[in-house]
Amino acid sequence: MSRPEKSGVMPPHSKHIVRVALDIPLATLFDYTAADGVAVGQRVLVPFGRKQVVGVVMGCAADSELAAERIKPVTRVLDEILPLSAELLTLLRFCADYYHHPLGMTVLSALPARLRSSQPVTFKEALQYTLSASGRALDLGEFPKRKVVQQRILTALQGSALSAAQLRALSPSAAAALKVLLEAGWVEPVTPITLALSPRERELTFNNAHTLTTEQQQAVDAVAQSNGYGCFLLHGVTGSGKTEVYVHLMNHVLRQGGQVLLLVPEINLTPQLENYFRSRFPDAELVSLHSGLADGERTQNWLRAQSGQARIVLGTRLAVFTPLPQLALIIVDEEHDSSFKQQDGLRYSARDVAIFRASTRKEYAEGCPTATPSPSRSQRGVPIVLGSATPSLESYYNAQSGRYKLLQLTARALAAAKLPAVHCINTSNALLHHGISEPLLAALEQRLQRGEQSLVFINRRGYAPVLMCTACGWLSGCANCAGKLVLHLRDRLLRCHHCGQQQRVPHACPSCGNTDLQPVGIGTQRVESALQEHFPQARILRVDRDSTRNKGAWNAMRRQIHDEAVDILVGTQMLAKGHDFPNLTLVCVLNPDSALYSSDFRASEKLFAQLAQVAGRAGRAGKPGEVLIQTAFPDHPLFRALREHDYAAWAKILLTERQSAGFPPFVYQAMLRAEGKQGTEVFAFLQQARKAATALALPVEVYGVVPAAMPRRANRIRAQLLVQCATRKPLQQFLRAWRPLLDALPAQKLRWSLDIDPLEF
Ligand code: ADP
Ligand code: ZN
Ligand code: ZN
Fold first, then answer.
1. Residue 580 CA, closest ligand 1 atom number
2. Residues 94, 43: one domain?
3. Is residue 501 in a domain?
4. Same domain, 675 and 637
């Protein structure tokens, strides 16, 4: 390992060593030589093997482990964009460290794809530099004479704003001088629009739609008064006006020149929210960041955030890594949602990373004399608000133990909008037509007559989850997976939802030749056609991943629903989240029971959240709402809590269970997963990993090697090994020691991964 440079003075024009993060699955950084003036955080093009690859300068060093003649020079500094800030680099270092993922891969994965390639970034608006207020106030006559290049730049900028390329033309060391001037705050980056109209200087319009309720006002005050970091859990029932709290907090922050980061779980929700927040803040620039954007647009939005021009950044989990020089508030909406957790590559929880980001703004610099932390920013931190009607047990527990501050909204904001009445229909003694009970049909009929909308929620797409032979009991299993092939009657296909394998529906049983094959269980398509048969006049719309596959389909459907061109909606969880359909008064839930006896200990927590959310769609605007749940266990505490809208009671039951079983949030976990063509190799790898783990003799619990919940997927055998500990620190110490041992195990034909704070079992 190379030693960081301590002294600070670099001989002029010497080549020095930069340590570069590359998208390579190794924990190390890579040393190159560079002319001085390459800033920490700068993108560089470097030779690696026979290729040229893009990397990010993470630090400087005086010397290297490598012999001097083996260190290659940086090919090119990609300085058409600003370097990544020290704050962002700190965040990425933390992620690599906490999730035990190679640093280089962590850093590169945080960039939009365009910035990971050496293609020149063509700006719609090229970045330019101008004098700041303090820069304009400088007396150049007093400026140290020997700082010739800095002086030349300051003088040039008195005329007009200039691009990096124009400044580079002033001197070979202009890049280094510019960096010093930027750090001193005398020069600042701008884009042509901000030149004409700086957002900090103009009046910001705020469309204040509502007078806050007392509870909302208390929540806003608590966060607004937070001095620096504070984590707030905003627990508000559906329709309680959490969004209004966000809007007022944003207003507070925007007025002080801050930027806001708002994380939401789903891409589908971002266009609506974008429009909504634009309507509230018509002249604060808002950009969105999510994987649904074309790469060019995503890059532009990222750059606008980095330049400080975008004041509001709205995005899904990947947006947590957006550079935000004036970040002053983070909001995580629907914080309990599991889509904040990435399930491959860097397996991070965007919520948890956001909390870390809010809590620390310490700046990081490895051995670079010029990267001195600016003390005003270094330890301030910013407030973060986690919003949910059904907080994750982790967050709720933290709020109860005082680590987070709990803010409650206990009633719906609109006085007329009461929480819906929730009833259970006991299916153990009910007659079902395609999975639908009589009382449910009667309730739907009533809504049709009143001209109100209903939603039938079933979390399974397709016609039926499996096809069965009535003679021999054959079931349509997937040849590649441990799962079943789902019947898609409309396409006349059996399809595996795990590996995508599909085949025509057989005419006869492949096992005995019998031609009477029956669908077992229900999916959205079956419910749709059963309802259509029962209510031929009704306008029924199915909303699931199959029906919304085409681009724009879901948007068109939403419009249809709003225009009341739909009577009954049949859909999956896509419909549960965040939508506001004013004429919807009935929500029916079919078949939620499997979660009650799932092997995943979080299944019932998720079910409650999902049902509370889907129930929250009913009766949001004045008309009373009703929720009917078909279950064989109407007395289960989950349904009791739902009926009483009592999240706290349910959370208490779950927390007691988790505590006695030794599950999160009372322990911290890490999961080692492996998969491969040969089961013996998979298990041998995990057994060796286990042996290595126990040999470390550290105070963590190492479980046995077990098959995964889906033990075979796409022809790969899958198994796992769980490690846990009552506190984070020893678990992290253990992982730090274990990870290199894992890297050293033979695993050529396997894929394996380490998942910290895993959500899936
Ligand atoms: P949540 O996000 O908590 O589910 P919303 O923010 O969507 O709730 O608010 C629900 C409804 O209540 C929206 O139609 C919103 O315009 C309205 N609303 C929110 N706050 C107020 C308020 N203080 N006065 C009147 N209506 C409000
Ligand atoms: Zn058969
Ligand atoms: Zn399959």
1. 7
2. yes
3. no
4. no
> What CATH number has the domain bearing residue 23?
3.40.1440.60
Question: Residues 315, 399: one domain?
Answer: yes
Cα angle at 603 between 343 and 687, to 5 degrees? 55
- Which pairs count as long-range contacts for 148-157, CB under 8 Å and 24+ apart, including other chains? 149/173, 149/174, 149/176, 149/177, 150/177, 150/180, 150/181, 152/177, 153/177, 153/178, 153/181, 153/187, 154/181, 154/186, 154/187, 157/129, 157/130, 157/131, 157/187
Distance 502 CA to ligand 2 centre (A): 20
The residue to mutate among 244, 410, 412, having the most atoms of ligand 1 within 8 angstroms of its beta carbon, is 244
Question: pTM of the prediction?
Answer: 0.86
Question: Are 92 and 207 within one domain?
Answer: no
Each residue of 37-93: pLDDT tens digit? 788 999 999 999 999 999 999 998 877 888 888 899 999 999 888 899 999 999 999
| Best of 243, 409, 623 for a ligand 1 pocket test (most atoms within 8 Å of beta carbon) | 243
For residue range 369-408, list pLDDT tens digits in order.
344 444 334 446 999 999 999 999 999 999 999 999 999 9
413 CA → ligand 1 middle, Å: 5
Q: Can you tell me the distance from the alpha carbon of 105 to that of 117, in angstroms, rounded to the nearest whole number?
A: 14
Ligand 1 contacts (CB < 6 A) are 210-213, 216, 236, 238-244, 413-414
Q: How confident is the model at residue 9 (pLDDT cuts 50, 70, 90)?
A: very low
The pLDDT of 21-46, averaged and rounded, is: 91
Final residue of a domain: which of 110, 144, 171? 110
Residue range of the domain that includes 76:
16-110
Whether residue 147 is found in the same domain as residue 258: no
